[in-house]
Write a structure and sequence with these properties.
The protein has 135 residues and is mostly helical. 59% of the residues lie in helices and 0% in strands. It has a single domain, classed as Ribonuclease III (Ribonuclease iii, N-terminal Endonuclease Domain, Chain A, Orthogonal Bundle), CATH 1.10.1520.20. The protein contains six helices and no strands. It is globular, with a radius of gyration of 15 Å. The termini are far apart. The mean pLDDT is 92.
């Protein structure tokens, strides 16, 4: 018998940390590293839908840091933090909510495709993610 989980069951990510505050999530460097790949997938799917063809790209720091600011999440970070670290924080939050089973890629995409502007799309997604956490 295989040790693989049934694909119809929810997969539990035992490696995922549990945080007590939004600041802990936003400043978790390990989450940011995984969140980079996750966010790039979301952004690539968003652009693929908009362009009606497969596209694989990276979400840039300017887009994510601006979305983080517009979502009102910048206030949880230290005052002297660069754009790249702000983008890392956005990526950490997005993957954390997904790892905790609070959202799905399909749900995230349904939020993103409601906006033509990518910054506004990710702002909405980050706002929704923060509300789901309720930390």
């Amino acid at each position: 018998m295989s040790n693989m989980p049934n694909p119809r069951q929810n997969i539990r990510f035992s490696f995922a940390p549990t945080h007590e505050t939004i600041k802990e999530v936003l400043t978790d460097h390990n989450l940011a590293a995984l969140g980079d790949a996750y966010t790039n997938l979301l952004y690539s799917l968003y652009l693929s839908i908009a362009k009606r063809k497969p596209i694989g790209v990276k979400a840039n720091s300017h887009l994510l840091s601006e979305a983080l600011k517009q979502a009102g999440l910048r206030e949880f970070l230290p005052s002297r933090i660069d754009r790249h670290k702000q983008a890392d924080s956005a990526e950490a939050l997005l993957v954390y909510v997904w790892l905790q089973g609070l959202t799905t890629i399909t749900e995230s995409m349904s939020i993103l495709v409601g906006y033509k502007d990518a910054t506004k799309a990710f702002c909405a997604l980050l706002s929704k993610a923060e509300k789901k956490l309720r930390l």
